[in-house]
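User: Second chain of the day. Same drill as before.
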Amino acid sequence: MKSLQLMQLLLSIVVLVLVSIQLVLTAALFILVLAGNPDANPLHNLSCCFVEKKPGLEGVWIMGGPYNQGKPCRIDRHNGQLLATNENGGVSRIQLLENNQISALNWENGMVGRVSRDCSRIDWANGTWWSRASDQKK
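Assistant: Same format as last time:
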């Protein structure tokens, strides 16, 4: 009886190891597909400011309107995350989306902004926009 229980335990361990190996191989395959097939990568459609960080999203921006015009805003990198600070001092984590879009996760239930191809302007879904501070334009 004990030998049967021992064999069942060993079989369970072997199954767990095989499942773990399968998960690792699946993850590795997924990474290889994304690296080898740009169309499979959701970030492939993003402009150079997302991918190459030239000039990038980080730095000082100016509120363009329609209200609080001229007030400074910022996007900074902190612990590997992009953080935006609006003209009123509100802070939100930024998530990169497809098609040159970003989402300010902590503002208006994830307010979306469209970034211009040259990263000089962000048009937010609430009708406001940020323009790159003049000393940071290309």
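The longest strand covers residues 59-65.

User: Great, on to the next one.
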